[in-house]
Amino acid sequence: MNKTLIVSRELCRQLLTLNDCIPAMTDTLISASKGEIKMLQRSMIPHETSGNMLAIMPASLLNHHVTGSKVTIFSGPKSRATAQGIVPLFDTETGALLSIVDAELITVIRTAATSAAATDVLARKDASSVAILGAGNQGRAHAEAMGLIRDIKKVYIWDMFPAAVEAALEVLKEKMPGVELIPCQTAEEAVKDADIVCTVTSTKGDSPFLKGEWLKKGAHVNAVGACSGAAREIETSVVKRCKVYYDWKEATMRDAGDLMIPVRAGEVSFDDFMGEVGSVMTGSLEGRVNDEEITLFETIGISVEDIAAALLIFEKAKAQNLGVWVEI
Ligand SMILES: NC(=O)c1ccc[n+]([C@@H]2O[C@H](COP(=O)([O-])OP(=O)(O)OC[C@H]3O[C@@H](n4cnc5c(N)ncnc54)[C@H](O)[C@@H]3O)[C@@H](O)[C@H]2O)c1
Question: Does 144 sit in the ligand 1 pocket, CB within 6 Å?
Fold first, then answer.
């Protein structure tokens, strides 16, 4: 029986950094676009009494010979526990269970790292300001991640709850010293002067708050928060104004309400969207061609990102002799 490396939440905090994860997500999106991976769409089991949902996200990284699945609970309103999850990693050749890695930080960091990787190829090189719409975990991580790929001087932050903005400001003051942090009363105020806009709210319905006419020429938008076919953060006017890219076509067609609600209404055509951002990274798909156009990266979050982040953590833990080896 082989031994399995258990990597705790605390150890993940020590090992998984945005700095390491951004290039890992670039490699992963490239592999996805080149067909070097196998991946299934997210499956979910809802539990009506608590509102908790079990989510399963499997994928294989063929060139790294690993396979696995994020298995996580999306906490419902009546849940007693905070969201918990794991990523079991297996060797595709031997079938050995290599590691079990906590998933909480993986979700936060890989999502912001993926947006940063996409922003790096799509945003103007001189982008220096960011609007964060939704000041939760993803909002904070996105502000920090954007600061790692561009010379960010200003971060505008808006949320439906001013207390969330205050809490994010406290954290970002430490994480982004020297950057001007600007709390905003409205989404429009946050967006109108921003070179990069990240929509990262936990909205679940079709009540978009970002309007196309607010966007500055040359801006780049990361639409992150709406992850179901029925939810939207951005109005059709945003989709119409932007050159549109996404993470994975199959998941986008099922779960990206931001794009698919206007497609279903006949307001835009899916064929008008550019394609997967990984293809821009390989040079096989056109990206931004001038400083005037507005680009949009629509991301649902795909399982291969979780497996790649778990692999990164496993390899660092093994190299540094950290974690606990057990015989399962
Ligand atoms: N695309 C991906 O890969 C991916 C990955 C992980 C999470 N997500 C999504 O990102 C979203 C944010 O996650 P999080 O962990 O930061 O959540 P969070 O609960 O920490 O923060 C969400 C914030 O959004 C605010 N908010 C909710 N609805 C709003 C609205 N209509 N207008 C303005 N503010 C609003 C809340 O007040 C809260 O501060 C969730 O919807 C989650 O499903 C996406």
Answer: no
Ligand 1 centroid to 143 CA: how many Å?
14
pLDDT number for residue 81 = 67
Q: Is the CB of 160 under 6 A from ligand 1?
A: yes
pLDDT confidence of residue 75: 84
Is residue 166 predicted with pLDDT exceeding 70? yes
Give residue 80's pLDDT band: very low, low, confident or very high (50, 70, 90): low
Q: Is 202 in the pocket of ligand 1 (CB under 6 A)?
A: yes
Q: 225 CA to middle of ligand 1, Å?
A: 5
- Segment 138-152 shows an average pLDDT of 98
Q: Is 26 in the pocket of ligand 1 (CB under 6 A)?
A: no
Using a 6 Å cutoff on CB, does residue 107 contact ligand 1?
yes
Task: For ligand 1, atom 3, name the residue with the nearest CA.
Answer: 301
List the domains of the chain with CATH numbers. 4-106+304-326 (3.30.1780.10), 123-301 (3.40.50.720)
In the chain, beta strands by DSSP E: 4-7, 37-39, 43-46, 53-61, 66-74, 85-91, 97-102, 129-133, 154-158, 180-183, 196-199, 206-210, 220-223, 232-234, 242-246, 275-276, 294-298, 324-326
For 150, 167, 260, 314, the CA distances from 136, given in Å and listed in that order, are 21, 9, 25, 27
Q: What number of other Cβ atoms are within 10 A of residue 211's Cβ?
A: 16
pTM of this structure: 0.97
